[in-house]
């Protein structure tokens, strides 16, 4: 008997509103709207049976069609507010595409369009980790510059500085602290059973981490982020590789 085919869906979520960088999902980066770079990466990876854009904005959905999305899904208003969780929007998008295609996707991957510095190996590697391990989901992250055990602090009720996560035996060198990672909003991959559960959180008991380097881990949230990504894109020979 032949091998069972694994169907995969890429979801690119992009709301119309943006607080940090106005209109960032359609803002031009290296000659294309920001969202176009992630759509190009999804297609070039060769990993997906369908590529979908989820948005509350008709302009973003139009850009999705123009730049290679096989499906565009209008997001309900209640899933597009500033306070809305992202997982329900991904689930809604996946369910809509399944209804349109008649397919059932085994692997659903969210590629955030605000993280265009990822490369194809990052996408393929996160998917391989998910499917080979049999875990619920995979999140991408980079080694953290700050550590809650050493130099990440909080203020207590009296306004005094305290380490976020003090150890019983304090350390004097950052290198001796337990390893910590920053989620970089680049690649989130779920197996079907996990995404279609009732949980709306990204990190669970069966989540694995796919590590990426800092130079591919910038998530555009401010004007400074955007300018830095513009510079990094200008130095890459292949912006989608």
TrEMBL record:
InterPro entries: CMP-NeuNAc_synthase (IPR050793), Cytidylyl_trans (IPR003329), Nucleotide-diphossugar_trans (IPR029044). Gene3D superfamilies: Spore Coat Polysaccharide Biosynthesis Protein SpsA, Chain A (3.90.550.10). The keyword Phosphoprotein does not apply. The keyword Transferase applies. GO terms for molecular function: nucleotidyltransferase activity. Coiled coil: none annotated. Keywords: Nucleotidyltransferase, Transferase. This is Acylneuraminate cytidylyltransferase family protein. The lineage of its organism: Bacteria, Pseudomonadati, Pseudomonadota, Alphaproteobacteria, Rhodospirillales.
């Amino acid at each position: 008997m032949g091998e069972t085919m694994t169907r995969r869906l890429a979801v690119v979520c992009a709301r119309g509103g943006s607080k940090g960088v106005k209109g960032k999902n359609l803002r031009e980066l290296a000659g294309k709207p920001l969202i176009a770079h992630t759509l190009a990466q999804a297609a070039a990876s060769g990993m997906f049976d369908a590529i979908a854009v989820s948005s509350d904005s008709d302009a973003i959905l139009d850009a999705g069609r123009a730049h290679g999305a096989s499906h565009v899904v209008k997001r309900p208003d209640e899933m597009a507010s500033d306070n809305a969780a992202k997982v329900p929007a991904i689930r809604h998008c996946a369910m809509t595409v399944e209804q349109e295609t008649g397919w059932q996707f085994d692997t659903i991957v969210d590629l955030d369009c605000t993280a265009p510095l990822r490369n194809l190996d990052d996408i393929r590697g996160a998917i391989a980790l998910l499917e080979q391990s049999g875990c619920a989901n995979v999140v991408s992250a980079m080694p953290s510059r700050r550590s809650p055990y050493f130099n990440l602090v909080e203020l207590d009720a009296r306004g005094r500085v305290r380490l976020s996560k003090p150890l019983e035996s304090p350390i004097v060198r950052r290198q001796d602290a337990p390893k910590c990672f920053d989620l970089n909003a680049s690649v989130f991959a779920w197996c079907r059973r996990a995404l279609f559960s009732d949980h709306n959180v990204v990190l669970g008991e069966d989540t694995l981490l796919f590590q990426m380097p800092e130079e591919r881990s910038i998530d555009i949230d401010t004007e400074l982020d955007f300018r830095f990504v513009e510079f990094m894109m200008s130095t890459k020979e292949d912006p989608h590789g």
